[in-house]
Design goal:
The structure is a homodimer. Chain A is of the alpha+beta class. Chain A contains 9 helices and 10 strands. Chains A and B meet through helix 3, strand 2, helix 4, strand 6 and strand 7 of A and helix 3, strand 2, helix 4, strand 6 and strand 7 of B. Chain A binds a DNA duplex through helix 3 and strand 2.
DNA sequence: CAGTGGTCTAGACCACTCC
DNA sequence: GAGTGGTCTAGACCACTGC
C-alpha cells in the first residue's frame, strides 16, 4: 500500500470522473458495492466519499446514491498556492520578475496578519508574474523571519518559491483568502502595463503551518479579465464568507 | 436528542470558540476526553471535529492536539446565499428594488449553467440591493421554470427570495461561485450611483438542489470597496480553484 | 515513552429515496 | 419494500508529537 486505502479509493473515483466514466449528474456506486470491490469496510469507503464531498466533487443525501457535480476540475492545495505550478497545469509558461526584495520593519497590517509583535521585521518581496510572457499579476508577499531568510537566498526570477520552500521542509497546511476588487494604482498600472484605475482582482492570503503559525501574508493583484476564482460550498462544508469591507476586526484579529 | 450528537458537540465547540474560551492558536481537548465527557464513542467526536475542519475553524495533525485557527467567524451556508440574512447578521437593514422581472428565452450562458435545452425559458430578475439605504450590489438572477414561477409570485421589494423559497420547500444544497473583477457598465453605474468603469467584485453563482439540478444562476456585482469574500482551504479540503478567464470549457460544461 | 490523532474493521439501527 | 446513506458503537493498530 503506497498510501492509505481511503485515499486510493478517492483517487480512483476522481480519476473515473475525470476520464468521463461518470459525467456530471451521474450516480456513483453504493458504499456497500465499493466496500466489496475493495475488500474494505463501509467506514473506509465513507471516508473516501467524505474527501470528495469536502472538495466539492460530489453531493450526498440520505437514501439516494451519491451524484457527480458539475463545475471546474478540482485544484490541489499545492497547485493553488503556487503560481508556477498552476501556470504549468493550464499549459502556460510561468515567469517572475523581482521588483523589490528587502528585510524591513513589518507594517501594522503585516503585524496583524502574521501575528507579530511590535518592532518585528519581515522579508518583503514584490514580484511581477507573467503567463507565457504576458503580465497578469503583481505579488507583494511578507514572510516571517525564518522562512523569509530561505526565500532571500533563492534565485527569485526563475524559481517557484512555494515549491522550493516545500523541498526545504516548510509545510503549508492552511490558507485564508480575502478576495475583493480594487482599482489599479499607478505602480500597479505601470508594472502590469495597463491603464491606472483598471479593475484588479485582489487576493490577500494568509498561509499557516500545521500548528497554525502564519508564515506568509501576501497581496496578489490579478488583471481583472485574466483570472477568476472558483469556490464550491454546501450546507455540509462552507468555508466561504461574505464580509463588509473595512470590516469590524474579527475576534482573531482584535 | 434535538438533533444528532456529533452536531451538538460541534456546536458546543464552536460556541466555546466564539465565547473566547478557546482563542486562536489554543489547543482543544483530546478526542478521548470529549468522548468521555459526552458519553460518546471516539468516532462521534471525530465526526464533530471533521465538520469544524471542513468549515476551516480548526487545524488537525497526527500526534498533536487540534488547534483553533484565526480568520473570520464562519458563515452558515444559508447566511451566505441570502443577502437579507447576511445583512441582518452584520447589523444592517437589507432592502431590494426590482429593476426588471421577466419570463424570457434563456441566453446561451444561462442554458449552459442551468443545464437547459435549446429554446428553454427562464425567469430573470434584476434587483438593486441596499445595505441600510446605501446601494451596494446589483443582482441579475435566472431561475429554472418551476422555481422561477414561485419567485414571480413574491413581493420582491420587501422579501428575501431565498428565505421564502426555503419556506416553500425548495432546498439549496450546493453552490459553485465564480469570483472576478469587472468594470462597471453604464447600467451598473447608474443603478449603483457610481462612476462608470469603477471596479466591481463580481460573483457568478450556480446553486443546485440535493440531486445536483441547477436551480439558479446569478450574476451579482458588488461595489469594490463595500464587500470582500473570505475563503478558507487546506490540504485536506480545498474547494477553491484559480481559473484563467475566458476559460476553456470544463468537462462538465462541454 | 505516554498521549494523541490517523486509519480501519464489523456490526447495529434508523431515515430516507425510489420504484 | 428493498436499497442506500446517516449516525453511532467498541475495539484495534499505527505514526507522530512533545516532553
Amino acid at each position: 500500500m503506497e498510501q492509505t486505502l481511503y485515499r486510493r479509493v478517492a483517487e480512483d473515483i476522481k480519476a473515473a470522473i475525470a476520464s468521463g466514466t461518470y459525467e456530471a449528474g451521474a450516480r456513483l456506486p453504493s458504499e456497500s458495492e465499493l466496500a466489496q470491490r475493495y475488500g474494505a469496510s463501509r467506514g473506509t469507503i465513507r471516508q473516501a466519499f467524505a474527501a470528495l464531498r469536502a472538495d466539492g466533487v460530489i453531493s450526498s443525501r440520505q437514501g439516494a446514491r451519491r451524484v457527480v457535480l458539475g463545475g471546474p476540475r478540482v485544484q490541489s492545495f499545492a497547485e493553488l498556492l503556487s503560481f508556477s505550478r498552476w501556470a504549468r497545469a493550464i499549459g502556460e509558461v510561468p515567469a517572475g520578475r523581482v521588483v523589490t526584495m528587502e528585510l524591513r520593519a513589518a507594517t501594522e497590517e503585516e503585524r496583524v496578519h502574521l501575528e507579530l509583535g511590535e518592532g518585528a521585521r519581515v522579508y518583503h518581496l514584490t514580484r511581477l508574474r507573467l503567463l507565457s510572457g504576458r503580465p497578469v499579476m503583481i505579488e507583494r508577499s511578507a514572510y516571517r523571519e525564518p522562512v523569509g531568510a530561505m526565500v532571500a537566498g533563492m534565485e527569485l526570477d526563475t524559481v517557484s518559491i512555494t515549491e522550493r520552500l516545500q523541498a526545504l521542509g516548510v509545510i503549508f497546511a492552511d490558507a485564508e483568502h480575502l478576495i475583493d476588487a480594487v482599482a489599479a494604482t499607478t505602480q500597479d498600472a505601470r508594472l502590469l502595463d495597463i491603464r491606472p484605475r483598471t479593475p484588479l482582482l485582489r487576493e490577500r492570503r494568509r498561509t499557516t503551518d500545521p500548528s497554525g503559525v502564519a508564515l506568509e501574508w501576501s497581496d496578489d493583484r490579478y488583471i481583472g479579465d485574466a483570472v477568476a476564482f472558483s469556490v464550491h460550498n454546501s450546507a455540509q462544508a462552507s468555508a466561504l464568507s461574505r464580509l463588509p469591507s473595512i470590516p469590524r476586526p474579527t475576534p482573531a484579529e482584535a
